[in-house]
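Entry type: protein chain
Record version: 2
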Amino acid sequence: MAAERAVVLVIDDDPSMRESLQDLIHSVDLDVRVFASPQEFLQAKRPDAPACLVLDVRLPGASGLTFQQELVKGGVDLPVIFITGHGDIPMSVRAMKAGAIEFLSKPFRDQELIDAINSGIERNRAQRREAVLGAELRQRFAALTQREREVMTLVISGRANKRTAAELGVSEATVKVHRAQIMHKMQAKSLVELVRMGDTLGLSTGKSSSDHDG
């Protein structure tokens, strides 16, 4: 299956810089969308595809650094590459602490930007895969009965069947039936995989010293 086609989003108020970046990004066979301001970017429909944002530090109105923080607060999780003609070390440190993946001072080498873009796209591709997996796991977990959820939470925390049965006031045979149903519904091939799913779902897994049993 071919990888989903990525897009590079560029915000820069300099028309010649936008054109130059557009040509460069197109030259390596990547889709690109350019914007003259953060407002223009926010008004546009964002592509549902792996992406990264190339952002000029100095923009009319709020700075690129301020806009980066607004995106994070708004839940827009895009890898950001800053470009600037006026960069200094404190500014770059602030950008990286806020989650930027690269801070390039103009003039930079074309390959530096392309490398940063490829890194950002791969990071976003992984973020999107994790988000899809998380959504699928939440759907599977929602399909469990209340009792199955209780059993799953105890099982992934390390409880043996006997102890799980005692805590829930049911028979050990009943716990085994629930466990089999949980493994089937969650599509887990092993207990280790089920524990990982529990971690992804944020279920409490206070480990017990009890041995797992079948």
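Comment: The chain is about 55% helix and 10% strand.
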